[in-house]
Structure prediction request, 184 residues.
Amino acid sequence: MHGPAPSGWLLVALCAATGAYCLLRMRSGVEEQRRAAGGEALMGFGMAAMAVPAAVFAPPPWAWAGYAVVFGAAALRALWAARTGTHHLHHLVGALAMVYMALVMAAAPGGGHAHGGDSGVPLLTGGLLLYFAGYVLLTGARLIPVPAMAGTSGAPAGWGDRPELARACRLSMGIAMVAMLLTM
Prediction:
């Protein structure tokens, strides 16, 4: 998933900043928002780590298996949470996409830093691209306009309780996922 260095660093910065904001969202007073923010922080930091340009850091071959295990566990958690609401299915798809990318990178010649080839886009990669492109468009449309909601005490909402910022965070990660899938 390693593309050109400048765009790789932009992707790392976007994902790391999104992960950091999701950590701030974990301070929310609403339990469900804290849980979602924790999963999104893991996703943001994991995507940032996977996007570091290969010229700077070439992870050891076992690192890709580590990513697959971590995101496989996140997928199981999302699957378990999906029994209470379908909105967790997006987290499931995202975690499984990360597992898929880690496995593809582990199987790629050169420790995961070879690109494409002449075989075209694999069906699963194309399906994930369509899903995340649609998700980005839908999330972007939902982002405008969202009024800021007051917190439970009637005071202005804190960083963790601002729905427009949470949607912008999800939009950023969706865009990053599309960029990562395009470089596969």
Residues 5-61+113-182 form one domain.
